[in-house]
Amino acid sequence: MVDKTLTTIVLVHLAIPFFLFLNLQNRDVQFSLLQSILLSIGGFALAYKLIPSIAAMTSSANMTGRDLNKRDRKALPESLGIATGTVYLICVIIFQVLDCFQKRDDNTTVTLAEYNASLTSICFMLLLGFSDDVLNLRWRYKLFLPMIASLPLLVSYAGGTAVVVPIPFRFIFGSVLELGIIYKIYLLLLAIFCTNSINILAGINGLEVGQSFVIGCAVITHNLIELLISSNPTVLHAHTFSFFLMTPFVATTISLWLFNWFPSKVFVGDTYTYFAGMCFAVAAIMCHFSKTLLLFFIPQILNFLYSTPQLFGLVPCPRHRIPHFNSKTGNMEATPNFTLLNLTLKIFGPMSEKRLCVYLIIFQDICCICAFLIRYYVALYFF
Predict the structure, then answer these.
(1) DSSP 8-state symbol, 178
(2) Three-state SS for 287?
(3) Are 263 and 106 in contact (CB under 8 A)?
(4) 223-255 confidence digits (pLDDT tens)
(5) Count of beta carbons in the 10 Å neighbourhood of residue 333
(6) How far apart are CA 311 and CA 305, in angstroms?
(7) Residue 381: CB partners within 8 Å, gap ≥ 6?
(8) Do the Cβ atoms of 280 and 194 come closer than 8 Å?
(9) Which of 51, 70, 109, 363 is the most exposed place for a label (fewest CB within 10 A)?
(10) Three-class SS string for 80-134?
């Protein structure tokens, strides 16, 4: 039976994008988005059906992990992100075929190049994540390989490399500053950050998938807002493409969350966190809203900054930095490790694993709401 808390969270987050979708004025765009939604619903059903079968396979291959935050420390199937990622790729490839056959025009070649570059990078990170779950790769590879995976994106990137200068600094740099290769290095670093930041904000049931679901819904909401307020063909194309990438991601993520929510039946593994991070990076880079994406990643940025002493070896860093599970009370308690999970427990005190996950999802929501306020209101005073 599906948990009521999880059902409420999912429905509340899907309500706003659904309302925005119904209010789109461009019927051609709305029809294209509807096709993507229907295909994504099919992806949700396929992933939900596939996950138990893949879980049985990973268990038989001894790819399991102990749930350290439970009294029985039961062994659970690992790397179930491979099921979600595989179904996602199937959905995007099928929609790529449908979309390109329906819209044969001068932009078809460019669109195909964007699709193929996106799929290549996402597929590479899915493979890297699964390899990490199997081989337990060292951190230096986790930083280097996402850079290689991002190269197809940078090669296919057709956007500008200039940035609009904030008003207070225009007397120094002018209205627009051309960054050239520096901007592409920034995009490369963005991809590396996205793929690793979700991975280090983890350790309790449902958190990796939950934060990804919230960010995915925020990106879709941003896409729909832009489709509502803009008539620029370039903007319409970019945010339609992003919607095509994000809708199957959110749909397949929900199916995985149903199994990973407390008490978890499966672990998602690094396979999912790397796959999710690259999906966000691909959408932001190819569709030109990288700065907005970083606003959605405020909790991940804060967690990274707070974790810096341990990540860079200034303070001893154990393999598992998760909070301590008190088997007598059933609550999670803070440890000396520098993570957002432990900081939350230090502020609010010991709590159950499920409540801790809900608190962090609410914090992700608050940050995304602040991101929209900054993007659509505060930014008007600086640009």
Answers:
(1) E
(2) coil
(3) no
(4) 999 999 998 988 998 999 999 999 999 999 999
(5) 15
(6) 9
(7) 167
(8) yes
(9) 109
(10) CHHHHHHHHHHHHHHHHHHHHHHCCCCCHHHHHHHHHHHHHHHHHHHHHHHHHHH
